[in-house]
């Protein structure tokens, strides 16, 4: 057992010439611009962008005004046509309701068994019906088409 | 429905006139000249419509507007149909929202034709967005009378004593 402990051992020592010095010195990234240059660049680019933005904004505004002019010029014609068709449809609806409720005793058109819905307006005043009432006597397909447009426009 | 039998609705025959059967692109193409040509009728109708706030009262003005529009497009058809169709086609197919800005060349051709044949100049930029004064013969509808409530709280008499404010002012939160 004593012989086994006689092996020559090599002590763990630094390499010849010693360890390399530890590189603890700070190595900053290469700077292309100073802070002031960056601020100046930011301001310069922003001013340029504002100028270009305003050029485009003027163009867009002019376009909007032109389109609005074109729409407003034809609006009276479209409104006149719409009014006529609307009044025609109101009459059709009223006739349809009279026909539908013909056999119900005591029913008066536009009222709930003679009780008016709007009591404070004069009897001749035209109260525009809500969407569902306006489409009440049409086919569900037409109702759906119109409701679909209205939800998505 | 809220429309009772007492509500006077015009007959179908009163409302049936020849309507303008044109596409949006065509209407847009002719819109500026149309607005200038029918300015009187349009202003009359729109004033009536907004003052009265009732479609039944402006049927005749509306018919005048439609008749004027029909007259205008008939004249355009007689004089400048090729230029008009070219311009409307351009508006139709150049963008999704009938923009006028892509069709300056065809617009120039159309404007020239309108000026030469119908002596109608294109109105200046933004003309229809400006407020305009319209003189009409139709009497103004009377304003809605102020509501009178029989059970309203009676006000102070005019000769009631009015002391100066105790805390310097009479703002609404200072209930003296």
From TrEMBL, chain A:
A Pfam entry, by short name: GRIM-19
Keywords: Electron transport, Membrane, Mitochondrion, Mitochondrion inner membrane, Respiratory chain, Transmembrane, Transmembrane helix, Transport
Subcellular localization, as worded in the UniProt entry: Mitochondrion inner membrane
Stretches of the chain forming a coiled coil according to its record: none
Protein role: Accessory subunit of the mitochondrial membrane respiratory chain NADH dehydrogenase (Complex I), that is believed not to be involved in catalysis. Complex I functions in the transfer of electrons from NADH to the respiratory chain. The immediate electron acceptor for the enzyme is believed to be ubiquinone. Involved in the interferon/all-trans-retinoic acid (IFN/RA) induced cell death. This apoptotic activity is inhibited by interaction with viral IRF1. Prevents the transactivation of STAT3 target genes.
Quaternary structure (record): Complex I is composed of 45 different subunits. Interacts with CARD15, but not with CARD4. Interacts with STAT3, but not with STAT1, STAT2 and STAT5A. Interacts with OLFM4.
GO cellular component: mitochondrial inner membrane; respiratory chain complex I
Domain of life per record: Eukaryota
Primary subcellular site in the record, as a coarse category: mitochondrion
Family: Belongs to the complex I NDUFA13 subunit family.
Annotated TM spans: 33-53
Annotated InterPro entries: GRIM-19 (IPR009346)
Name of the protein in its database record: NADH dehydrogenase [ubiquinone] 1 alpha subcomplex subunit 13
Membrane topology: Single-pass membrane protein
TrEMBL record, chain B:
Disulfide bond is among the record's keywords: yes
PROSITE patterns attached to this UniProt entry: CHCH
Gene Ontology biological process terms, A to Z: mitochondrial electron transport, NADH to ubiquinone
A Gene Ontology term for the protein's cellular component: mitochondrial inner membrane
Keywords: Disulfide bond, Electron transport, Membrane, Mitochondrion, Mitochondrion inner membrane, Repeat, Respiratory chain, Transport
Principal location class: mitochondrion
Subcellular localization, as worded in the UniProt entry: Mitochondrion inner membrane
Region (Disordered): 136-163
Function text: Accessory subunit of the mitochondrial membrane respiratory chain NADH dehydrogenase (Complex I), that is believed not to be involved in catalysis. Complex I functions in the transfer of electrons from NADH to the respiratory chain. The immediate electron acceptor for the enzyme is believed to be ubiquinone.
Family membership noted in the UniProt record: Belongs to the complex I NDUFA8 subunit family.
Protein name per Swiss-Prot or TrEMBL: NADH dehydrogenase [ubiquinone] 1 alpha subcomplex subunit 8
Annotated organism of origin: Parnassius mnemosyne
């Amino acid at each position: 057992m004593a012989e086994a402990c006689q092996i020559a051992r090599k002590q763990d020592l630094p390499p010849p010439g010693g360890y390399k010095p530890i590189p603890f010195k700070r190595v900053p990234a290469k700077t292309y611009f100073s802070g002031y240059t960056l601020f100046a660049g930011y301001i310069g680019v922003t001013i340029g962008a504002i100028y270009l933005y305003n050029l485009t904004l003027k163009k867009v505004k002019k376009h909007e005004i032109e389109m609005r002019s074109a729409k407003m010029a034809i609006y009276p014609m479209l409104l006149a046509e719409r009014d006529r068709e609307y009044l025609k449809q109101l009459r059709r609806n009223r006739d349809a309701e009279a026909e539908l409720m013909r056999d119900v005793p005591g029913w008066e058109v536009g009222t709930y068994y003679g009780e008016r819905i709007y009591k404070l307006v004069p009897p001749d005043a035209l109260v525009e019906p809500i969407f569902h009432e306006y489409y009440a006597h049409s086919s569900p397909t037409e109702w759906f088409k119109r409701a679909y447009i209205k939800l998505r426009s | 429905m809220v429309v009772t039998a007492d509500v006077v609705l015009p007959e179908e025959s009163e409302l049936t006139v020849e309507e303008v059967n044109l596409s949006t692109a065509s209407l847009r193409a002719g819109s500026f000249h149309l607005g200038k040509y029918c300015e009187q009728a349009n202003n009359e109708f729109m004033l009536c419509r907004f003052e009265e706030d009732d479609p039944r009262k402006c049927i005749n003005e509306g018919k005048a507007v439609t008749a004027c529009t029909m007259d205008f497009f008939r004249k355009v058809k007689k004089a400048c149909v090729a230029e008009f169709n070219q311009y409307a086609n351009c508006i139709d197919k150049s963008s999704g929202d009938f923009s006028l800005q892509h069709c300056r060349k065809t617009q120039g051709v159309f404007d020239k034709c309108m000026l030469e044949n119908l002596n109608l100049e294109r109105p200046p930029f933004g003309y229809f967005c400006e407020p305009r004064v319209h003189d009409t013969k139709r009497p103004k509808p009377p304003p809605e009378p102020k509501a009178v409530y029989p059970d309203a709280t009676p006000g102070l008499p005019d000769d009631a004593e009015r002391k100066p404010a105790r805390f310097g002012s009479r703002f609404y939160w200072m209930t003296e």
